[in-house]
Here is the input.
Amino acid sequence: MKLGARTFDFSRQVAVMAIINRTPDSFHDRGRTFALDRAVEAALTAVSDGADWLDIGGVPFGPDGPQVEAAEEIDRVVPLIEAVRAATDAVISVDTHRGVVAEAALKAGADVVNDTSGVSDPALATAVATANAGLVVTHSLSGPRVRHPRPTYDDVTAEVVAFLRDRVAFARHSGVAADKIIIDPGHDLNKNTLHTLALTRRLPEIAALGHPLLVALSNKDFIGETLSRAQHDRLPGSLAAAVFCILNGARIIRVHDVRASVDAVRMTETLLGWHNPDNLRHNM
Here is the structure.
């Protein structure tokens, strides 16, 4: 898959996507990278630590907090994309559900739109198609900043598969190229811990849809509830979950802790025979 200046062989390669949020109330960093200079620094540090991909967002998914208008979202993400694009050829995605924001971000230099709403805005698909950009189609029931009633599923994995199949078809009908589409089952998005664990166990059924599979599970509540760990004590659980997902078909891992995640991914690739050791000295 070619995204911007980079090409990935997802038959034997896993991409590490670093999360860069320009929000004062983000899920994990709580505004640490809200200032533009701090966000640029975090993005370039992530690349230095081995990230292949930078996911830039201006609106948290969670329902708690103020609404962010489209103009403000653009003001948050576009200057960051422009600054980072001038400094690296890493893949840049914009995490948005709005077509107008996607269009502005793609013009600023983004390569991919990462839409956690399952392409709820037809204008977003049009913007992606016009730019021949990449698109992440994610399962959720509501989208960002919406409080959804307690989620229920008869068969969460089957329902996620059906949703993704339908929304991919919509994106294709809107002109998005098949070889530019990525799918994400939406770990914890309108799902409780039991739902997320169930779909993770059956991840091969989601990968069987045939598009590269992204998983965004870093430091999420299903890890905290499984291990009784506070939010900033979930790195070991996040790494274990990431490796499990790679073994079951995931090829893009969205993470907060880049250096540790890159090491886990490269070690997994090497054990699978996809990657050679960086150096050989022991008993040689």
